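ZP: hey, is the FE2/S2 (inorganic) cluster complex queued? I don't see it on the tracker
AM: it wasn't, my bad. submitting now with these inputs:
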Amino acid sequence: MTETRELKFSEAAMAEIQRYISHYPEGRQKSAILPILHVAQAEFGGWVSPEAMDLVASILNIQPIEVYEVATFYTMFNLKPVGKHVLEVCRTGPCCLRGADQMIELLKQKLNVEEGGTTADGMFTLKPVECLASCGTGPMLQVREKFYENLDSEERLDQFLETLRNSEVETPYHQLSDLKKD
Ligand code: FES
């Protein structure tokens, strides 16, 4: 099992990581950095701490700064602890034309959080992001691997939040279907 300070990946996660690394030629293991960061995020509570990034760097035998550069570039990696459900809300032009700004304002009011914030009960994190490639069905947002579209009324938004509040969600990496493929 690979370790850095107190963090370590489970045996199952390490097997997955080794599988990603095996996709690339010797000396090119860094190419597996994105899927490995996804494994790290799912494995360590939905975010990648500096310790988690250091661990990824040690596995890939690269400098920690190389991992920090990637993790801080992509919005899909959370750099601080997040709530049970991360609401990744599209705020790019086409969705704004269909009411994304109003949806974000409503979410801020209903959840009593600012952008990037997490609710006091730890249930939701509100995270505006750029285009999620579902421009025709805005306003929309993504939670984990699922899109929630046409959230164009307060009633729909309330239904959506209620659905999430009542859902049982775990975040081990092996439940993320995209990490089980290829
Ligand atoms: S602009 Fe919102 S999904 Fe593309």
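AM: back. Residues 100-111 form the longest helix (12 residues).
ZP: great, adding it to the tracker
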